[in-house]
Every structure is written in C-alpha cells, then in structure tokens.
DNA sequence: AAATGCGCCAACCGCGTGCGC
DNA sequence: AGCGCACGCGGTTGGCGCATT
C-alpha cells in the first residue's frame, strides 16, 4: 500500500513557497511518480499530498470559485444518476475537481437535493424546462448532456432511468461496465 | 467586545485497483 | 501467480472565518 506515513513530513496547509516549488517541479518533470516528486523537489511532503495539491489547486486548468447554476444543476442530476461517484461527475465538468465537487455537494447541494426529494413530483418537468433554458442562456463550457430522461424522483430506482437518451452514452457504458464486474 | 456555534474548504486517511517485475 | 509500488477514489477531519448571541 501507499503509506507515506512519516512523522517528520510536513502536514497541513501548503505555503506559497511550497506551491511554487511543486508547480515548478511538475512543470519540468510532469505530474507523475509523486513519491519521486516529493523527494526530488525537496518538499518535505508525502507523494500523496503533492498529488492532491497539484490536482486540486495547482493544475493550470483547474477552475476555482463559484459554481454556476448550470454546474450546480449538472451536479445534482449526475449525482442522482450515479451517486457519490465524484471523480466521474468531475470528468463531466471541466475545470472542477472531484474534491471540490464533493465539498460543494456536502456544503450546499446535499440539503438542496433533500429538499427537492421532498417536493412532490411537481415539477420535475418544470424544473427541467427551467434548467435547459437557463443553460441555453448562460453559455458555459459544460459538456452538457442533452436530456436526462426522467423520473427517478425518489432516488432509489436507478434501473428505471433512461440512459439511452442522447448524450448519456457515457452513463450507459459506465453502467454496463459496472454490471460486467 | 468577547464567546460560542456553525459552515465551508483544504487536506488527510484508508482502501481498492492497475501495472510492472 | 505473487508481490510491491504507484495511483485514484471516496469518506472524514481539522482549522479558519463568519454569524449569532
């Protein structure tokens, strides 16, 4: 197992200097062999910590700050579809990391999702309509799915979900892969 | 103004998986 | 086939800042 447990290693928040060191090292050598990165860069950190810092913060394409409405809606819908598969959800939202999405879910969306579950079926259709029109107008770069099918309001009848909808091939193949195992 | 509570986010931890030897 | 290393994932925790009393 990867157990970088070493009492002498730095832990906790990263300093600006550490960030710079790590970013420079990765820029020269690439984001791989994190244990080597940790040692050769001179950072007194474990490889795991370096990897996480790079992925969640230092990567040039990582988008930080507020989630747009479209991103939020997408997270809600994807979570309803596939559950706590944060990395999968993150792959569908450019610039967002699994950790960030997970945090955002726990901080903001969990309550919201619960609330929505309690609402009568009103308005899944109405919500969807809203959703699409908002997304059409906000012009995000989200790799949007075109339709999420329907139903599944109570959150535990996944098999009734229509993953054959356009744009959901990835979900379909994902589910098929899961079934194969 | 001080104390306390709460929410949010960054980071850590443990475990599973993939891959090379 | 078995082993060890490296990576990736999801759950959890710690600390900071803001709001409330």
UniProtKB/TrEMBL annotation:
- For bias kind Acidic residues, which ranges apply? 143-161
Please state the protein's primary subcellular location.
nucleus
Q: Where is this region: Disordered?
A: 141-164
The answer to whether keyword Cell membrane applies is: no
**PANTHER family named in the record:** MYB TRANSCRIPTION FACTOR, TRANSCRIPTION FACTOR MYB51-LIKE ISOFORM X1
What the protein does comes down to:
Transcription factor.
Question: Can you cite an annotated GO cellular component?
Answer: nucleus
Myb-like domain segment(s): 6-58, 59-109
Protein name stated in the entry: Transcription factor MYB114-like isoform X3
Q: Does the keyword Nucleus apply?
A: yes
Keyword terms, alphabetized: DNA-binding, Nucleus, Repeat
| Domain HTH myb-type positions | 6-58, 59-113
Superkingdom of origin: Eukaryota
Q: Which CDD domains match?
A: SANT
Q: Which Pfam families match?
A: Myb_DNA-binding
Q: What would be an example GO MF term here?
A: DNA binding
Where is this protein found? Answer: Nucleus
């Amino acid at each position: 197992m990867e157990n970088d447990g070493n009492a002498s290693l730095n832990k906790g928040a990263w300093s600006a200097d550490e960030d710079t060191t790590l970013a420079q090292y990765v820029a020269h050598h690439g984001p791989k062999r994190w244990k080597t990165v940790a040692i050769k860069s001179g950072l007194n950190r474990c490889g795991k910590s370096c990897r996480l810092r790079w992925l969640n913060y230092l990567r040039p394409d990582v988008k930080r700050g507020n989630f747009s409405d479209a991103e939020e809606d997408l997270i809600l819908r994807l979570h309803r579809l596939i559950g706590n598969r944060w990395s999968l959800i993150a792959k569908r939202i450019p610039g967002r990391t699994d950790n960030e999405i997970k945090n955002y879910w726990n901080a903001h969306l969990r309550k919201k999702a619960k609330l929505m579950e309690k609402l009568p079926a009103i308005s899944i259709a109405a919500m969807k309509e809203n959703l699409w029109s908002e997304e059409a107008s906000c012009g995000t770069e989200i790799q949007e799915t075109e339709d999420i099918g329907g139903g599944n309001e109570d959150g535990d009848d996944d098999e009734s979900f229509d993953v054959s909808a356009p744009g959901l091939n990835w979900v379909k193949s994902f589910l098929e892969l899961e079934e194969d195992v």
